[in-house]
Each structure stands twice: as structure tokens, then as C-alpha cells.
Amino acid sequence: NCAPLALASLINMTYIQIDRLLTSGMLTLADTSHLTAAQVIIMGVVEVLSTTILIAVYPMMARAYRGDGQDTLFRFMVEKLAFFTLLIGLPIGLVFTLFAADITVPLFGANFLDVAPVLRVLIWYAVVTMVVNVFAQAFMTQNRQRRWVVIRVGGLVLKLALSLLLLPRIGVVGAAAATLLAEGLILVLAAAVFAV
Description:
Layout: H1 2-26, H2 29-64, H3 72-98, H4 100-108, H5 115-141, H6 145-170, H7 172-195
């Protein structure tokens, strides 16, 4: 059962890094650096607001999961955690959308003002991925990591296809849009599979 976990980790790394690879090959170095700067902010948001909470609640989730079909408490915990993660994420997404330039310029300088449009899209990816992370942890707790790998592969394939389609048409924002749309699919699939 550890092979699917290793594969999921590899897929996650590929999922994050593929944008930089594609933008560096299809767009300019400046576009790639703008995407990278936005991703640094997004990863910080996800690490602080999602990863720390999920690590803290993992022992409770593991104790609540019974595996005998009597998992009412576990399912309640996952659903509430997903809901409250979304509830926290929505105002953060709104603030970053409205003040993207005010956030990026002090961090990276005036030359990185073009990071703002990318950040305005990627922050919504962060909101979605924080909820997705709740379901990912639930799948690991339930020992359903093989299903999780299938879901992640589907998202990666969609992201790659959308990136190849959108990058030439709308530039670096296309990479952000492809990431958001693919993560949205992952959320829908994860929620559907978890409900079964």
C-alpha cells in the first residue's frame, strides 16, 4: 500500500512543476518567473492554512475511522473540515483577488507587477486545493490511496491538456486557469468518490 502513496507524491510534484516546464518552453522567461512568484505565494497560503491544520487533525481522523461501515463520526469530521476550509478560503481568495498587485509588488518589486493577474487566478486554485487536501487525507486514512492516485492522474492529464491549449492563446494566465480547472475536477471527483 505504500507504492500508491509514492506514486501520488510523484504525481503531485509533477502537477506543480509542469507549469514551469511548459511556460519556459512555450512562453518567455519573464512569464515563467511571474508564474513562479505567484506559485510561491500560493504554496505559502496552502502550507500555512491547510497543511498545518491537516497534520494537527490527522490523529483524530485516524481514531474516528473504523473501517467497519460505522464511520458516521469520521465522515462528519471530513465533511465539516472541508466545509470550514472552504469557509476560510473564500474570503482569502477574495482578498487576494482584489489586492493582488498590492500583495505582489511589496514582496517581489515593481518589476513583478505582472504577477498579479496570475495570482488572481491561482489563489482560487489554493482555495480549491485546500478542500481537496481534506479529501486526500480522508482517502489516506481510509486506505483508499489507489483511488486517490486515479483521481490525481485524471487531474494531471486534464491540466496538461488545458495548459497546452491555453498557454498559446492567453499566455501565463492560461497555466493558472488550467491548474484551477483541473483542481476543480479533482475536487468534484474526490467528493463523489468519498460519498460512496
